[in-house]
User: Fold this.
Amino acid sequence: MDLKNISLEECLKLLKEKKISSKELTTFYLKEAEANKDLNAYISLNSVNAIKSAEESDKRISANTSRPLEGIPIAIKDLFCTKDVSTTAASKMLNNFKPTYESTVTQNLWDAGAILLGKTNLDEFAMGSSNETSFFGASINPWSKSNKKYVPGGSSGGSAAAVSGNIAIAATGTDTGGSIRQPASYCGIVGLKPTYGRCSRWGIVSFASSLDQAGPMTKTVNDAALMLDVMAGYDKKDSTSANLEKTNFYKNLKDKKKLRIGIPKQYKNDQLNDEIIKLWDLGIEYFKKNNCEVVEIDLPHTEYALATYYIISSAEASSNLARYDGIRYGLRNNSENINDLYENTRSEGFGEEVKRRIMIGTYVLSAGYYDAYYLKAQKVRSKIINDFKKAFEKVDIIFTPTAPSDAFEQGSKIDDPIQMYLNDVFTVPVSLAGLPAISIPMGLSSNNLPLGFQIIGKSFNEDSVFKAAKIIEENSNFKKEDKK
Amino acid sequence: MDIDKKLVKKIATLSRVKIEEKEVERISKDLSKIITWVEKLNEVDTKDVTPVANPSDIKIPFRKDEINDGKIEDKILKNAPEKKAGYFVVPKVVE
Assistant:
């Protein structure tokens, strides 16, 4: 039995038919994770307790009291608080932090029978697009060549590398400006950012609260739907959580629906290379072949999205990260004087990129500059949201590339923050508007690296996003086996 | 806008981040570049536009202000770098 290339859906079937036990499955993935430490996809493995949980799951399976994800080991981005299990946010600041509570999204997964396999690597406090800002060293793209190391993307790079490298069946990620979708694209997997409010943010280490959203990172579209059905749901502990009916994404995938697809003309800019444009056209053909109507749409404020995003996300980050003061939890650099204690602790605990964003955020919120930067960005955000609202009067789905390129080489952009930020040019507008979007692998670049495409839906209409993603998945000839 | 060295030091203090004298120039260059880049937003006419803080159309509900937990002092203090007799310990603040 090939346990390596197996999907979550197939695992559930094998477990149900008792062709394999959860203990065998969990042991296999713990071993694979150990054997592939060079990917640096995990910050920590939950070796002992994962086996114990698997034994519990096997008992339930025998007793026919299985829950929806019974016995499935899952990798969790190390930004989700897990009770009594080290939660670092890939920062020196939280290197010794063991939460006394469980995040709502992970609790939902455990309540559905899933098992914590390990905590995955990320950019420090989810700030980055390459995984290179992690205190624990960068995770590596499993598609790297023997002589060249490529980034897995970020910030959920460890989760993407784990799923792509077959050392996790499925993983969770979080997405603030593209942190699920861009690594999914770079690693050739499926990654979904749900609508803002779909999954509870409670217990996820905060970065930018008006943008942060948790989502699944999986091998297939069906797996993403299976995961999201469990992860999503109303939570009174998150005041922006949406109180909606229980979702049935997986079940609803079976119904076919004719979709109207929009192609934003502003996304076809000169910086896009030919191979991405070619693949994009191919995707459009797939939709047409499946009776979808394809029309051009207008998103006139697209070029302002990145600047808007960097003002708002940095402002919110500077405020959220004020809590790391060396007093209540996390690192402390002792000092005689309280202000020195704060400053020394924060200088030692935070890395370069985090400090840079805190300073940008502090500046744009400071007296005399607030209106010119922060308030201005909030107004432009309103215009960007309106662009999408107008476009969605004409279409059900918007189809674009996920990122402007394939994965880049390690070290090639880390010294130029703006170059790094430009990776998020297609994912950031969606985040500002709080819309659901998936990245789905479409093909390979001339460098033999995966290229993903983004499918954006209306607010709380993940169903259409999944259906459109299914069309791409079924038609594209993307194969993981092409990995060399 | 140019973020000069003096302003860098002020922002660092407001951010409670200590920076070395030798870093000031590099940070000044970095921040100036980023701030100049985001000033692209000045091209957008935002007269009479309502600023957005939350992208969702869902209204944030109020809840009753009532106690729903308690007696979790041990949990709260569990990760404290320094604690004593049920309190966080800080350097002397009042002279």
Observations:
- Chain B has three helices and two strands.
- Chain B touches chain A through 51 residues (CB under 8 Å).
- The mean pLDDT of chain B is 93.
- Residues 24-38 of chain B form the longest helix (15 residues).
